[in-house]
TrEMBL record:
GO molecular function: translation elongation factor activity
Similarity annotation: Belongs to the EF-Ts family.
Cell compartment(s), UniProt: Mitochondrion
Gene name linked to the record: EFTS
CDD domains: UBA_EF-Ts (cd14275)
Gene Ontology CC annotation, any one: mitochondrion
InterPro entries registered for this protein in UniProt: EF-Ts_dimer_sf (IPR036402), Transl_elong_EFTs/EF1B (IPR001816), Transl_elong_EFTs/EF1B_dimer (IPR014039), Transl_elong_Ts_CS (IPR018101), UBA-like_sf (IPR009060)
Organism: Gossypium arboreum
Name of protein: Elongation factor Ts, mitochondrial
């Protein structure tokens, strides 16, 4: 009860009374004992007043210092987007010098990013950049979809796509299509203009810096650049698009025209529809002739073994295999597919119709489909399975 009674008193008086009671127990109180002189009482009152003033000053100075520290933590957090615990630790280590702490955070972040670089990153975004007759799509990976929705991550992805437009095809790949890995971009420089990541820096350093901010493994995985002739167009479609130029699945294709035309709008409209079709229908080849012999022979063997299990005659088995191969072509060859929004139309029919509309033959030059994280999990599974297989 005594504690609750004292709790109602001002903090300074409460602390002072505790101090007095402690002094009394030691036998040197100057005013609480019986027979205390008036002079002693006066001195005690002055001492009490001075002590209360000292307690008040100390309490207020500590409160002000704490408020200033919180302000510095907030400022550095806004500057860097680093976790609060790392922000506070850097400020403490740098004696609350915010500029020094920011440099320290960058150093810590790079070390942290290197430590996390081996972790699997299957989430992320595809970013698209286009100019006349050319389009580029890159895949930027992270570990969680929470980071993929971060504005700094999105900003970096779009900046990388714009830079990819200038990548040149120096290899003997399909004309008009250039697929590349991160090594083609890592040493190129970006001029970033974001409140939390700005200035000129290499792409590799920019990715590392964002990884340090996010506290996750972030990596540029791959990209593709597609171009067409001066008479054609390149069209792209992004599925699950959080903002323009970003998505999780991309379809991209080039439409080529034999002669120069004036109805580019009609061509671009059809191109957008077919890019959407590529995302939905997942074609693997442009024409039947483009199906590789290995893929074709493998599929034929599978279909033949399935037909033999029915116990029918060899002639019937061959017919069954041929029929199922036609069905296979309709599934994986874009020129044999039905349009996904209207199965009464084939892709061939759509191209014939637009050819009549623009007054010149139109064909698909190239196409490409990309999805965030595709193939990563199987690669990781095969790596983790190797030591087990060796152990057995």
């Amino acid at each position: 009860m005594a504690f609750f009674k004292n709790a109602k008193q001002p903090l300074g008086i409460f602390l002072y009374n505790i101090r007095l009671s402690t002094c009394s127990r030691h036998g040197y109180s100057t005013w609480a004992t019986k027979g205390t002189s008036f002079a002693q009482s006066t001195d005690t009152k002055a001492s009490k007043t001075a002590y209360l003033y000292w307690v008040s000053r100390r309490f207020n100075s500590q409160a002000a210092s704490s408020a200033e520290q919180m302000s510095l933590i907030k400022q550095l957090r806004e500057r860097t987007s680093a976790p609060i615990k790392d922000v506070k630790a850097s400020l403490v280590d740098c004696n609350w010098d915010i500029e020094a702490a920011q440099k320290e955070l960058r150093k810590r972040g790079k070390v942290l990013a290197m430590k996390k670089s081996s972790r699997t990153a299957t989430e992320g975004l595809l970013a698209l950049a286009q100019n006349e007759g050319k389009a580029a799509v890159i895949e930027l990976n992270c570990e969680t979809d929470f980071v993929a929705r971060n504005e700094i991550f999105e900003y970096l992805a779009l900046a990388l796509a714009k830079k990819a437009l200038f990548v040149q095809n120096s290899s003997q790949q399909i004309p008009g299509v250039f697929s590349f890995g991160p090594e083609c971009l890592e040493d190129l420089k970006l001029n970033l203009d974001h409140p939390k990541i700005s200035g000129e820096k290499t792409i590799q350093n920019a990715v590392t810096e964002v990884a340090a901010m996010m506290g996750e493994n972030i990596k540029l995985r791959r990209g593709v650049v597609m171009s067409t002739s001066s008479h054609g167009v390149v069209s792209a479609y992004l599925h699950r698009c959080p903002r323009p130029g970003l998505g999780r699945i991309a379809g991209i294709l080039s439409l080529e025209v034999e002669n120069e035309i004036s109805q580019l709008d009609a061509l671009q409209k059809v191109g957008s529809e077919l890019a959407m079709h590529i995302v939905a229908a997942k074609p693997l080849f442009l024409t039947k002739e483009g199906v590789t012999s290995d893929v074709l022979n493998n599929e034929r063997e599978i279909l033949k073994s399935q037909a033999i299990s029915t116990g029918k005659s060899p002639m019937a088995i061959e017919k069954m295999v041929d029929g199922r191969l036609r069905k296979y072509f309709e599934e994986v060859v874009i020129m044999e597919q039905k349009y996904f929004l209207n199965d009464s139309l084939s892709i061939k029919t759509i191209l014939d119709n637009v050819s009549k509309e623009v007054g010149s033959p139109v064909k698909i030059g190239n196409f490409f489909r990309m999805e965030v994280g595709e193939g990563i999990q199987s690669q990781e599974a095969s790596r983790s399975a190797e030591p087990v297989a060796q152990a057995v």
